[in-house]
Records
---
Amino acid sequence: MASSASERGYLPDGARSVKIVVLGAFGVGKTTFVGTVSEMRPLRTEERLTRAGELVDDVAVDTKSTTTVAMDFGRRTLAGGIVVYLFGAPGQPRFAAMIRSLLTGALGGLVLVDTRHIDRSYASIDLLEEAGVPYVVAVNTFSESPGYSEAVLRDALTLPDDRPLVFVDARTMQSAKHALVALVTDILRPAGSHTP
Ligand SMILES: Nc1nc2c(ncn2[C@@H]2O[C@H](COP(=O)(O)OP(=O)(O)OP(=O)(O)O)[C@@H](O)[C@H]2O)c(=O)[nH]1
Ligand SMILES: [Mg+2]
């Protein structure tokens, strides 16, 4: 007799699952975020950054030696049995087609932002708006990055009033989970209250 999914240990009975995509520019901490919140060992597709890549990518960061070339994948179970499947997108603009395909079936997007390069977040927000996927902006608080008020950040991002903005340290479980809960809460809001 075939065993149920819960007997095989995939999902608890009655679980609701949610696919979300973590987006943002190169090096904003997407892979770090998925790794921090995932309760399973995350899938990663990291490749070494090379001098050759400098010809096509703006990857001027001295703290990183690898970059995501396809996606990250992780899973987190939240209170109430909601299972969140996290897909971390690649950050470089030439991967836009890959990001569009990751957005297929996604119920929400988490856009990580580094305040050193706010303008590099526009492409991610545009992709989400284009796909009609609701999103939350999470400002990753790198110690080297300038601090701005929420109002200034909203203005710089031209963020609609109904899109939540949170601050996160992608390396810290508590903080990353808070950002994830903000997104899932937004996704589970009553139908009709989303504008994108
Ligand atoms: N100070 C600080 N460093 C961070 C934080 N999050 C990530 N980092 C570091 O910043 C770098 C960015 O890491 P990744 O997680 O690979 O970034 P990414 O967005 O996945 O990068 P790509 O896939 O190449 O676009 C790593 O060296 C992290 O250790 C943070 O919240 N604070
Ligand atoms: Mg990455």
---
Amino acid sequence: MTRRTLTAQDLRTYAEDGYLVVKGAAAQRPIDELMGFVAHVIRLESGSIEPDEAVLNRVLVDLKRSHPSSSSWIYQTILGSWALKRFFIDIAIEDMAMQVLGMDDPNNLGIVSPAFRFDIPGDTRNVRAWHQDSAYFRENQAGTDALVAWIPTTPSRQENGSVVMAPGTHHVGRVGSVHEEASGYKSEQYVVPDSMLEGRRLVHVEAEPGDVAFINMDLVHGSGVNSTADNVRYTAQIRFNTINRPEYRPVQLRPIYPTYERRTD
Ligand SMILES: O=C(O)CCC(=O)C(=O)O
């Protein structure tokens, strides 16, 4: 993909709102390849021989409700895959991330937590509450030195729970969040105080596969509510950071190998 130059207005929007949606930033082919791989992983666990559309939606919804551990196996298998790593390389959005970070030398670009989410209707255990990513990821101090790239790989709409932004909240900086440990099948959360949202305008991002939202690490945002019957919302995320800062602190991760109760056990 050729280098895409962001405009001065794009960079002003990012600075003022704390996020920027770039339409058509990623090519369709890597998205199709990734979603084909995701359907493959769901088939490995569900045993379904139905077409991709059914596997990616109804089959996964049913599986997650009946076998939450299977859904966890699928989630972790996707995170550990070569296909997901290759996706982030193939979409080649690092130039845009560098422009947003005001960086010239790619040797100064770090990443953390290349991730992939599937948000199924009615799920309350894995949605992200109102948060700042800087509470989870501590590589840099300043919210402007790092960002989240949020990448829908299927259409992301208010009704299927697309991410909701609170524009301008990044100007407050990192605030004290309440930490809730992961437990059972519930994800860990760092939740910002309600006061961060008082009087704020909220924007439900509506985006197509290939659009990318670049989000300042201090911007308050969260998952919406997926109120559809069986439309799973799929998104990838990768966090870019700046390694040539005196306070830069690379994360050290500890492996955990949970016991999975597979559907076929
Ligand atoms: O897409 C979503 O539900 C929100 C994801 C998010 O907020 C994040 O990864 O920081």
---
Amino acid sequence: MTAPSVAGTRRLPHASALDTARVLGRVVVPLLARGVIVRRRAAVAMAERADADARAVALLQELRRTYGAGPLRLRLPRRMVVLLSPQHVHRVLADGPEPFSPATREKRAALSHFEPDNVLISSAEDRAERRPFHDVALDSGSALHRGSDAAVATIHEELDGLLERVDATGRLEWDDYARTWLRIVRRVTLGDGAADDEQLTDDLVALRATANWAFLHPTRRRLRRRFHERLQGHLDRAEPGSLAFWAAQAPTTPNTRPSQQVAQWLFAFDAATWAGFRALALLATHPEQLRLVRAEIDAVDLGVPQPLPRLRAVVLESLRLWPTTPAVLRETTARTQWEEGPMPEGTSILTYAPFFHRDDENLPEAHRFAPDLWARQRTEDDWPFVPFSAGPAQCPGRNVVLHTVSLALARLLRDRDVDLLDGRLRHDEDLPGTLDMFTLRFAVGPRETAAA
Ligand code: HEM
């Protein structure tokens, strides 16, 4: 449907009141119910049962057929549009922080509960001072962080412990995997001195739980202060080999507020637990892909940093199939012009990543495990895969996270066979739109096929 013309001017297509309600019911409410900042287990299980993401994608496909390529305005008191075209996603993510600011009202309300001065919710001026801290400390442009030797040693040590426990029971379950991963995160980020500081992780989880309620929950200021004092204590040690060491070398101004920046690292590393566990489920159910991954692992010394491109693509596929940041939000800081008409200042823009990652009307591999998708050259007109966002606010931790998760998976699969203990994923069937990571369980035993 073309946008109606008013006195010769074009307007962005407007969803009807009913279609707006359907977007709220099928896209927005399920996102909020699962918890945007920390996931609620029961709600994630329910979302899998309802195949919530597939239903949301189907609705947005229908709305694209009805209203065209958008951006589609919703009929709400808050000005809000949903993006339906790859080119629009590229434009919005590339043209930041002005006129498309990552610091939306909703994100500010949520993240302020634990990191009010973080780069993601900073003004354009503050962002200019804070973003270089992340890029330098995280070595964001390098596939392998310049200090990744220490992370490699840590991952092997922690996986030794995990595999010892797993070998005793023959089972790998979420709680043990997640506890191990969070220890890895504290050691890699803050050093061995933080290995046992579960209080730090627990305080952050408690603050994130309030962040799920955004405007609707009062800030727990005392807890937030305690968390940042603890975190600052770890940063002050600047332990060699940890990211805190590199943070201490990164450029700062009085306005950088390092603990406010590093809180995001600890928070964001959590998503890697989900991505890694789901990637393991994919490999456990796709023998041909597992064979290729093992050929890569067997050919290198995992004791030193390795790029492991195939395993990286597997982790990226896990994030394409089940993005851990499904809603990428922007807010306009000025009126902008589109093919269909103007968009006013102060409009909230939703990129719903699963719609683009799983759009089977444009992507034949949409519901298949297809790591080779990540080897293709992409263009502006190409389908956007945005698990790490794009443009100036693209995740500066993407390489660190892809390397650490790939290595943990490599270590698990090098000399163990892993079977998924239920039929939720099959290599000869479409993959589900939603996958509850908390309930994945694996049988683990010695590897039967010898290394090549
Ligand atoms: C699977 C793991 C991760 C995923 C999927 C992920 C995804 C994302 C996404 C989508 C954004 C941008 C949000 C937006 O455009 O509004 C982002 C931003 C960010 N991420 Fe990650 N991230 C992950 C892990 C990490 C890790 C481990 C770190 C640090 C060690 C990190 C640091 C950051 C920072 C500092 C930002 C803010 C960037 C800015 O605003 O300029 N992330 N991440």
---
Amino acid sequence: MSAIDRIALVAEAALAPSVHNVQPARWRLVGDDGISLFEGLRSRLATGDPRGNDAAISLGAAAEGMRLAAGRRGLALVPTATPADEPDLRGVAGWRLVDDGEPDPLVGVVEARQSWRAAFAKPTAADRRAAEALVADDAAVVTDPAILKQLAGRYDAASYRFMRDDAFRAELRGWMRLDRRHPRWAVDGLNADAMAMSGIEARGAALVLGPAFRLLARIGLARPLLAEGAKVARGAGLVVFHRPRNEAPFDSGARFYRLWLRIEAAGFGAAVLAALADDPGAAAEIARAAGIGADRRVVSAFRIGRRPPGEQPPRARRPIEEVLV
Ligand SMILES: Cc1cc2nc3c(=O)[nH]c(=O)nc-3n(C[C@H](O)[C@H](O)[C@H](O)COP(=O)(O)O)c2cc1C
């Protein structure tokens, strides 16, 4: 297999979701048919993700992206030795590409899947039924408007708890590209278009998350300015992703990506609400509301809904030279 073919696979795997769009996956072509996956440790979120849980979920999603890309071309991945760690790189997994793969039905929506952070169209009864049909072994779905409203409030409270931490806000701002002239606007992190912010909203966010936060917090304005719960309450539903409590986050990451692709295949847009899973109190409440057992871990949650007509913003992704090591 030529190097060029594997580069096409890497480019497709890069469409996978990653926390704050840091894109931690680094790839190396090995010999004639091998490929190794590393974590680029410089993109680790020291404050938001000190134990590397979200990085591992992101890497699991990238690995699943590689598996889907290989399957599209009739190739399968056979595990080989995990590559050794190197400076700034943690060895994650190694594979050989062999000829007996087949296309996964979800591969058809890989290109279309993208975070949708604007509001959704007002849901119809049929939309709510379609949302409920997404229920699976590892996906619970909440569509009752009263429960959605309650969880929306929980979401705002949980995300504000994270936002109050100066170090968390500083790290998040470091990955935000609020000005189109930012050199990495189209490369990584979260740009204003991806966050569905107008120019004025982006300038406001720079202030609220930056120098004005303490003052706004003191006068009780920071929280309402950051609140997003209304978008949760007005969606078609909330999809709660849960996995066995002791599962490695890398393995959960592959399932996370597959669930998001199922949501896309059902014609829904989705935005991740990580704070609902990361805040222990919110995770417990959501598990109760969605009937999820104590042996399961709430890994993540998505608000889903129908996207109103209009263009999706272009994706920000690292160029291939940054991800090949
Ligand atoms: C572990 C993890 C946590 C995430 N948390 C959030 C979140 O809290 N809010 C959000 O809007 N997106 C979240 N995302 C989605 C990423 O920001 C998104 O995948 C990334 O920006 C790439 O953009 P795309 O999904 O449009 O391809 C998360 C993704 C992962 C893998």
